[in-house]
Amino acid sequence: MNTWTLMKRILKQFRRDKRSMALMVAAPIFVLTLMWLVLDGDSKTLNVALVDVPDPFQETLEESELQLTSMSLAKAEEEIDDGSIDAFLQWKEQKPYLILEGSDPNTAGAIRNELQAAAAPNDPTKEMNVSFWHGSEDMELFDYIGPVLIGFFVFFFVFIVGGVSFLRERTQGTLERLLASPIKRSEVVFGYLGGFGLFTILQSILIAVFSIYVLDVYMTGSLMYVLLITFLLALTALSLGTLLSAFAKNEFQMIQFIPLVIVPQVFFSGLFPIEGLAVWLQAIGRVMPLTYGAEALRGIMLRDEGIAEFQLSMYILIGFVVLFTLLNIFALKRHRRL
Fold this sequence. Notes:
The chain has about 350 residues and is an alpha/beta fold. About 65% of the residues lie in helices and about 5% in strands. It has two domains: about 45-130, D-Maltodextrin-Binding Protein, domain 2, CATH 3.40.190; about 140-335, no CATH class. The model has no long low-confidence stretch (mean pLDDT about 85). This is ABC-2 type transport system permease protein. Its main location: membrane.
């Protein structure tokens, strides 16, 4: 009897919580649909440039799955540097030289396999000289996804901890007491972001340093640039978490934002190839902060990019921080109109 009474109380509680009921149904369907759309897209096109390759061998390669384009050496070097092509094959001194972009070991391996299969049985690729524009022969899959994971974990934990902490300030009455004083809404927001921001700096440093020096994730760029991007990601997550906490009544409702806010960013962050997706799906990824953070981190750690290369991603992350901060200030009108 006591068990039945408890069951009825829980059922009534869920029935009153329309938001939780909706998320229990909608969130799994939303995530599964998103996963299907991302994983069911076309496979990545392998773009290979041909530089002074003899016509007979070029005709042989045309039977492969590679997307081949003939161009000059200078053009090939320019395009492999900006990521437009995945490799270029140069014929020099009667020998083939394969230069792989190299930041993605899966792509590099697929190109080599395609070349081997297309050139058999008269296989000049047995004597092919292989080099890497970025990365190295020893790179593994974790080295490629490592920068994305660094950005993801920084974003995820700061979002949860910052959002729940700010929510607790509100539910315990601390925020209401502050708003009852002459303090401005902007001062409240900047104060909380500044206080929590100090801890996000420490967390960003810890995650980045541990990943690079303990887990030995491939790193060829500047550690200071890595810390800069992780800190901007953390600030973005913190300002977004505090903003969404204004629409949550308790910690459980704050956690409910994960399938709607965090999970979609995982699919568009670079962990899964999105080049073969529909244009409208790729456009969704361009409005997600983690997309820009992951791109910048991957460029710094795998391709030794400087500020000139990742400055656009950096400015967009700063824009997200400013936008979410302004929305935070506006959201405090729900508690007090100054």
